[in-house]
TrEMBL record:
The chain crosses the membrane at residues 23-41. Residues 55-82 form a coiled coil. Pfam families: PilN. It comes from the Bacteria. Keywords: Coiled coil, Membrane, Transmembrane, Transmembrane helix. This is Fimbrial assembly family protein. PANTHER family: DNA UTILIZATION PROTEIN HOFN. It comes from Thermincola potens (strain JR).
Length: 185
């Protein structure tokens, strides 16, 4: 290095800057540090990727569980509806079986021209019949037939009104006590 100017202090001018082994050692240390930082980030990146995969699997499992819970709740609701419907059907069956002989007996004794629109049963064994008739004579005949029947007692007219149809029709409501007849019905 002849012709070059060295501005370093005198004690440093005579020392060689570094020997070859020192330079190699520094390069190796820097490479090791760089590798550790890069590899450490790589490991953290791999761990992050694994964490994300596990998290996405957990989210998928949670969604499956939520879907299963929704299906279970729907099935439970359906079962509750079925249970309610079953109770209603049993209740109706209990009411229909006794109503069958009532309807059959009324069908036998109802006068011509009388039309029943509603039939309601009360808690105390009473029966309310609502309908129309072409005249008061048919309503009276129906009440007499009910009282003569084995199933109906104490039949009486609760309400009789002329219908607002412009035709000769009478709306009526009759109540009576229903009881089992001699045939066990």
């Amino acid at each position: 290095m002849k012709g070059s100017i060295n501005l370093l202090p005198l004690e440093y001018r005579k020392k060689p800057i570094a020997n070859r082994e020192q330079v190699i050692l520094i390069i190796l240390i820097l490479a090791a540090l760089f590798y550790m930082v890069y590899y450490g980030v790589g490991v953290a990146g791999v761990e992050m990727t694994q964490y994300r995969q596990e998290l996405s699997m957990a989210v998928a499992d949670l969604e499956k569980m939520q879907d299963g819970l929704r299906k279970y709740e729907q099935k439970l609701a359906q079962n509750q509806v079925l249970s309610t419907n079953k109770r209603l059907a049993e209740s109706l069956q209990k009411e229909i079986k006794p109503a069958t002989p009532v309807i059959m007996e009324i069908n036998k004794i109802i006068p011509a021209g009388v039309v029943l629109n509603a039939m309601e049963t009360g808690d105390n064994g009473t029966l309310s019949l609502k309908g129309t008739a072409p005249g008061l004579a048919q309503v009276s005949d129906f009440i007499d037939r009910l009282n003569q029947s084995a199933h109906y007692k104490n039949a009486r007219a609760v309400n009789i009104q002329e219908a607002d149809t412009g035709k000769a029709l009478w709306n009526f409501e009759i109540t009576c006590a229903w009881q089992k007849g001699g045939d066990g019905q």
